[in-house]
Amino acid sequence: MIHFIKLNLVSIIYAFIALIPIQLIGNVYRINRLTGCKIATINTITAVVIIIEFIVGTILILILTKKWLKNRKANFWTMILWVPYFILFTYITASLFPIVNEGDSPNPVSGFFAIGLLMLFPFYIYSINFISLALKND
Question: What is the pTM of this model?
Answer without folding.
Answer: 0.89
